[in-house]
Design a protein that fits this description.
By secondary structure, this protein is an alpha/beta fold. It has helices spanning 40-48, 70-76, 92-97, 112-124, 140-154, 170-187, 198-203, 222-225, 228-235; strands at residues 2-11, 14-24, 29-33, 55-60, 63-64, 77-80, 158-162, 190-194, 207-212, 215-221, 238-242, 246-250. It has a single domain (2-250), classed as 3-Layer(aba) Sandwich (Rossmann fold), CATH 3.40.50.
């Protein structure tokens, strides 16, 4: 599990995140929401070890994340960002196989087990037909599905996503979220997800952290956090709650 204690983060003299304390349980979908500029991506980068807290600590399974090597982190967590920035013309198979790198010793060739996992990951994400296609030739949504396949192939206990499905058709967004739910329920994977679509948050979250101005506005079970008054106050929008179905944003 993650344990975040009294974390502050500055860029220069500007305070980006203020006094954050919360936990992320093993085997849940933990969703981070908030208006633009509220610190969501910065927080995710702290959870990945890309940024270091200015003060406070972040423990991952009891270990201070600042003390973990890149190799150790890559065996614990996989990350998908919104923008797929692969400039070299790798085949999609090669990209997904990169997910196996943390499990391979130096210069070790992929085994049959590695190949089986890659095939499984591409089947799960409906990308096997892109096996020999260059990733540079794919659309944004197709690239995001390949990155999800690479993440599945990495087989980490933690998956962190920053608007990772933003370019997908809604059909594939829902399939991808259902796939993550399957991993949570069947394998005990922990998913930390930044999402802008409030209906996706409502339907595919266990716990929700609502950030506003770098501080925790609300934290708890999705039903409690996603109340009409909380969303309207923080996002400055009008919504209509539909019991059991999410919410409708009003003009």
């Amino acid at each position: 599990m993650y344990k975040i204690s009294n974390v502050n983060f500055f860029i220069g003299k500007r305070l980006i995140l203020k006094d954050l304390s919360f936990s992320i349980r093993q085997g849940e979908i933990f969703t981070i929401i908030g208006p633009n500029g509220s610190g969501k991506t910065t927080l995710l980068k702290l959870l990945t070890g890309f940024y270091k807290p200015s003060s406070g600590e972040i423990l991952l399974d009891g270990i201070d994340i600042r003390m973990m090597t890149p190799k150790a982190l890559s065996q614990k967590l996989s990350v998908i960002s919104q923008n797929v920035n692969i400039q070299f013309p790798f085949t999609c198979f090669e990209v997904v196989m990169m997910g196996r790198n943390p499990k391979l010793a130096n210069n070790q060739k992929p085994s049959k087990r590695d190949m089986d996992v890659v095939i499984w990951a591409m089947e799960k994400t409906n990308t096997l037909q892109y096996w020999d296609r260059l990733i540079t030739e794919l659309s944004g949504g197709e690239k995001q599905r390949i990155m999800l396949a690479r993440t599945l192939a990495q087989e980490t206990p933690y998956i962190l996503l920053d608007e990772a499905f933003s370019d997908m058709d809604m059909h594939y967004v829902i399939k991808s979220m259902k796939l993550l739910r399957e991993l949570v329920e069947q394998k005990g994977v922990t998913v930390v997800n930044i999402v802008h679509d409030l209906n996706l948050v409502y339907h595919f979250s266990d716990s929700v952290l609502l950030l506003n101005g770098g501080k925790i506005e609300r934290l708890g079970h999705r039903v409690e956090v996603m109340k009409k008054e909380n969303i309207e106050k923080t996002f400055k929008i009008r919504v209509e709650s539909i019991k059991g179905r999410g919410m409708l944003i009003l003009p």
